[in-house]
Amino acid sequence: MPEIIFLMGKSASGKDKIRRILETDPQLLLHPVVIYTTRPMRQGERQGVDYHFVSCEEAAELFASGRLIEKRTYETIQGPWHYFSVDDGQILTDGKTRYLAIGTLESYMAYVRYFGQEHVFPVLIWSRDDVRLLRAIHREQKQEHPDYQEVCRRFLADSEDFSEENIRKARISERFENDGSLEECVEKIRHAILENTP
Question: Which CATH architecture has domain 4-196?
């Protein structure tokens, strides 16, 4: 049974809130997988908790290490931002421990290629576009220097990244809707994790 629970969804679909709730669930006992990024730290984020924030030079060394699981690069208004996962000892596929990873549909497929489908359980969070856009704007308003162009870029890029064709290719059949009650969405995810993982 899969040990890696892979949480994914379009931007502002509620992934981070859901992740924080799942990580503190005493029954699930999930070990968070912290990925790396070269983007600047946002207000309220913590080094080694939300991401491993690294310089472009540090990222280049990790890319060359032979332990790269997946990498995504976004051309932003502020320049290229890299997000990536490294096989750095955080995950052991021994059937004893549950892990919680978060990313895009593309990074989910990279985890499947690297670890094998039998070790990765997909959790696709789904929200309506209007709900996501309002959430994204509200979140950006809280930043010291709001970047609404980046919000728009991510919103449009998600339409391509999470197209119905790409979801079919990833062989994902279940979606967890997060338009109404967050608690209801989380409870459905909890139930699926407990039914489908060790």
Answer: 3-Layer(aba) Sandwich (3.40)
